[in-house]
C-alpha cells in the first residue's frame, strides 16, 4: 500500500482539511507520530466485510497441489523471462 502520510502535529492543525480530502478522494491517510504510523484514516463504507470479499470471489487461481514445489520453468521470476 502506498498510503499518504502526515505527521500527527500537522494533522491536528488541519484535521478538517484532511477529513475532506479522504472523503473526496477515497484514499486512506496514515497519521504518524515521530515517523511511526499510528493511525489510518479511511473513508466510511456501508459494505459489510462479506460484501467486500464477495467482489474477490473467483479471482484467485485454483491450485490443485498447493503444497507441492513448482519447477523452475514454472516460476517466471526465476527463469530470466
Structure in words:
The chain has about 80 residues and is α+β, with helices and mostly antiparallel strands. The protein has one domain (about 1-60): YefM-like fold (3-Layer(aba) Sandwich). The protein is about 35% helix and about 20% strand. The chain has helices at about 10-15, 15-25, 50-55, 75-80, and strands spanning about 5, 30-35, 35-40. A 3-stranded mixed β-sheet has the order 1-2-3. β2 and β3 form a beta hairpin. The model has no long low-confidence stretch (mean pLDDT about 85).
Secondary structure class reads alpha+beta
The ordered string of helix (H) and strand (E) elements is EHHEEHH
| Count of spatially separate domains | 1
CA(first)-CA(last) distance: 27 Å
The assembly state of the depicted protein chains is single chain
CATH class: Alpha Beta
Major β-sheet, in short? 3 strands, mixed
Strand content: 15-25%
How many alpha or pi helices?
4
Low-pLDDT runs of 5+ residues are none
Count all strands and give the number: 3
Mean pLDDT: 84
CATH architecture: 3-Layer(aba) Sandwich
Tell me the helix content. 25-40%
